[in-house]
Amino acid sequence: MFPSAWVDLGAIKEIYKEIERLVEQDGKDRDVHHIVPLISKLVCGLHCEDNLMIIDRLANQSINNRWWPDMP
After folding, report:
1. Quick check: pTM over 0.90?
2. What per-residue confidence (pLDDT) applies to 37?
């Protein structure tokens, strides 16, 4: 991974650390979800901290690349 002016690698690492902490705390599986999918027929999002959120693993798998906010 390379440094960029629009990506805070430290913030991304903290999101992944938070998943580990939450799983350790309650044992529930979680994933990092890309709010706007990285790859889709209609849109491509970015792997940056503003496009990431922590959600339940099964919920993330059910969304796949078929839904995002303001989807046309």
Report:
1. no
2. 87
